[in-house]
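Appendix B, Record 12. Input sequence as logged:
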Amino acid sequence: MRKFTIVPALDFMDLFAMMKFIDKTKDLEEVVAYKVGFTALNWGLPQVVKSIRKYTDKPIIYDHQKGGTDVPHTALPFAQIMRKSGVDAAILFPFTGAFTMIYWIEELHKHNVEPMVGGLMTHDSFLKDSDFGGLGYISFDSVINIYLNAVNNGVTSFIIPLTKPGLVNRILQAVDFGPGAKFYAPGYCNQGGDVHKFSMMDELNVIIGRRIITAEDPAAEIKSIMESWKNVETSTVNG
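Logged structural output:
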């Protein structure tokens, strides 16, 4: 039986609105964590985490959009800030090479913050390979290497794009993620991602932002989304 869950992306510009949303969704079993991005810098990450903790103990993921692309020595202050702020996990997209990636992963581990690694983004024209449009800067081989190196350095949580099921399927075939791996997928709804094209996965945590945070009744919207995912059957995997 497949298990699909939701991680709301709290991309709010109003802290009160964010807390109101959390209050309405915190008790839903379908919601397994909350993700905060750089809009949290409006008030300071520690303040946002403290405010969320008044409502729920569910994991808080910080997405630096895109963390892990700086030089190696900046890993330490980043990890220290993550630990001090109280987040449970931090997302990295280490496009600047294995050396930087290893430092950032190691420092997060040392500071008891879970690293979550992505290598492929949701939007078109990301890859440089001619087969994929040729307008990006990153090769698909490099994407594979990011996930491979992440696994080899103890990462067990990964970001994959919901908009590219065919490429995700190729990644799953090329990389031995292990039985304990967890996958988180942005790109639902507004970007065209479709959970029904991910029938090759037994479990998937879908990151959703605008569709639910702008809903008049976010709890009802989440329930509606989950109902539409009930029968994810084998489907053609491409894209």
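The longest strand covers residues 60-67.
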